[in-house]
Amino acid sequence: MALLITPGQWGDAPQMIEILDRIRVPRPLVGRPRTRPDHVSGDKAYSSRRNRRYLRRRRIKHTIPEPKDQRANRRRRGSAGGRPAGFDRERYRRRNEVERTINRLKNSRAVATRYDKRAYVFHGTVTAAAVRLWLRP
Predict the structure, then answer these.
(1) Residues 11 and 45: beta-carbon distance below 8 Å
(2) Which of 13, 39, 62, 90 is 20 to 30 Å from 56 at the Cα level?
(3) Residues 101-126: what's their mean pLDDT?
């Protein structure tokens, strides 16, 4: 769907909006490509105001657990704190499929160690590893 190469010390949660903006899924026959997923799942790191506001604005359903500190802050504010975020445990359990896919990508030594100095070369390496994984029976 979309790849984004960032420096190793950057977290993945702040990149969520940029990666969602890059998604382009072509329609089978004609028409504009799809740019909005049906649903997004993430761990507690993705539970920022910025990410949730973006998902709400684009009407993307999401399953992201609320960290304890955010939950306590919302409750402390009372009715001004808003409603708790909806959370579907069954859907959240399927999040491990993404983690397993990333681990399978890292089975490729070139992806795991990043020998490539240039970002565009590494992007090609990750793309080739993803295609190889996708074509595997």
Answers:
(1) yes
(2) 90
(3) 88
